[in-house]
Design brief:
The protein is mainly alpha-helical. The chain is 58% helix and 0% strand.
Length: 293
């Protein structure tokens, strides 16, 4: 359902905050129609978050839609701020939730301002969430592979990261690092990557050294590299129409009303388990690193 009634920016933000599983199409459209003013407001919110403002549930709901819209609009002013928030422990993970593992790499690319320094700082930041860092590596590698970051510079950065990056222990940041090495076809780094796997810095339940070798071979083949870059580019294109993209998500689907059946409701035993809570399966890992779909 759409409306011709003009919404104020406050109303748009309120619609985002209260949307739930109903896609706020009118609010999304009117945010785009009033983009300069709307962008100024949400950029100010990002600035406040970077400065330590409390991240509330309603703020997360608002910024979920706002960040996707900023990616659609290629709002480069948001790039450095998101990277800076990413360096503040798990605050970006708290703000964006599953977006971190699903699309943060693509969002970084859509917002990229031409300056790799914020991404590089985030990649190197030991205090940052490991999945945020991995997304930064993914974006950095794609930008370098497509010529938007100088390849020699990118190679030097990845070499320096191997020598200095923390933790010197298992972390998903190292998954991102070796992914970047393979995508750029840096065959000379193979001995370094082998050390990373031998030292256990990449969880062997995620991947093994042989998977890196396979990815490297693929990236060193022109057709294989083109396929990898095209797959990433295809997802980037979804952000050209965020409303249409979000409308395909099962979360925002409007299911048909089922016929009444007198049965007990199905309860989700994981509904109160946070992404950073211990996994209920008892593995000792965080839920987001274990059984989270």
């Amino acid at each position: 359902m759409t409306t011709d009634i003009a919404l104020t920016i406050d109303t748009i933000l309120d619609d985002f905050a209260t949307a739930g599983t109903v896609l706020p199409r009118d609010a999304l459209q009117q945010a785009l129609e009033h983009w300069p003013d709307f962008a100024d407001v949400v950029l100010a919110v990002l600035y406040d978050i970077e400065g330590g403002a409390e991240i509330t549930e309603s703020l997360c709901d608002i910024m979920f839609f706002a960040v996707y819209l900023m990616a659609q609009q290629r709002e480069t002013r948001a790039y450095a701020r998101l990277c800076a928030i990413g360096m503040q422990g798990e605050r970006l993970d708290l703000l964006l939730g599953d977006t971190v593992t699903e699309h943060l790499n693509h969002i970084f690319v859509r917002l990229y301002s031409g300056d790799p320094a914020p991404l590089e700082s985030l990649m190197a930041c030991a205090e940052a969430d490991e999945f945020v860092r991995s997304a930064a590596f993914d974006a950095f590698a794609w930008l370098a592979a497509t010529g938007r970051i100088d390849r020699d510079h990118a190679t030097a950065i990845l070499q320096a990261q191997f020598e200095t990056m923390l933790p010197r222990s298992e972390s998903f940041a190292w998954v991102g690092w070796q992914d970047a090495v393979s995508l750029l076809g840096l065959d000379s780094f193979t001995p370094l990557v082998k050390q990373v796997f031998e030292r256990g810095w990449v969880d062997d339940s995620i991947m093994g050294f042989e998977h890196f070798e396979e990815d490297l071979r693929c990236a060193m083949d022109p057709e294989g590299l083109a396929a990898k870059l095209d797959a990433f580019s295809n997802i980037l294109e979804y952000f050209d129409d965020v409303t249409g993209f979000l409308a395909t998500w099962p979360y925002f689907a409007e299911p048909a009303r089922p016929a009444y059946v007198d049965v007990q409701p199905i309860r989700n035993p994981l509904r109160n388990v946070g992404r950073n809570d211990p996994c209920p399966c008892g593995s000792g890992k965080k839920y987001k690193k274990c059984c989270l779909p």
